[in-house]
Amino acid sequence: MFPAARQVAVFDTAFHTTMPRWNKTYALPKRLAEKYRIRKYGFHGTSYRWLTEQAALRLGKDVGDVNLILMHLGAGASMCAVKGGKCLDTTMGLTPTAGLVMATRCGDIDPSVVAFLVDKEGMTADEVESVLNLESGLVGMCGLKDIRDVHAAERRGEAAAAEALDVYVARIRGYLGSYMFQLGGRVDAVVFSAGVGEHDAEVRRRVLEGMEWAGLALDVEKNAAVVGGGAARIDRDGTVVPILVVPTDEERSIAMQVSELLG
Description:
This protein is α/β, with parallel strands linked by helices. The protein has a domain at about 15-100 and about 170-260: 2-Layer Sandwich (Nucleotidyltransferase, domain 5). The chain has twelve helices and six strands. The chain is globular, with a radius of gyration of 19 Å.
């Protein structure tokens, strides 16, 4: 319909192409990995590019000088370690199913669970994949996929909701520790973003609870005052590692990349 139009594809995996081989390579038979290009690709790349640039701007640093731990926490959720402005590691893998616990996705599990369910339940591989992507995560553990509803259920004393939140937060904290280690302890900021990251003060509080030893000291009042809609710094005065809430803007990130490609 528009033969003269210039078409641009912006890939959500593009930001992660800088991952070193040891972070993107799966320990699979090389013949299969190479034949099918099976490796970690990562997702939410347009968001992470935006957040890296915005965090650097707010820290008064050049993009190439920042080490960051970024959290895109929404219905789909992932984290990214940024070293020198480039992706060092991320939680999603070949597909967006890996990594953190999400609204309906399981995140990291023992891969043999797939074969186990095929054997015990007589499920096909496609049926298991559907379970892992659409019936797992928060909704699988407590029947609720909106984290606001999970919080409400926990307040009502529902044990399944409390356990689901514990698992959700524990997975984030595990990757937070891993990424601090990978960055050699030099972290210029920890950044929360996306629907949960920007709006859920309780999740932010639980993720950072007791993390003062790592230089992450949350200001509880500043944190509680952030309900989304704007950027904020929520660490205590004099803290070692700044803690930021930065709204993501994937659409603008895509538009900016299109503009760059078209010159």
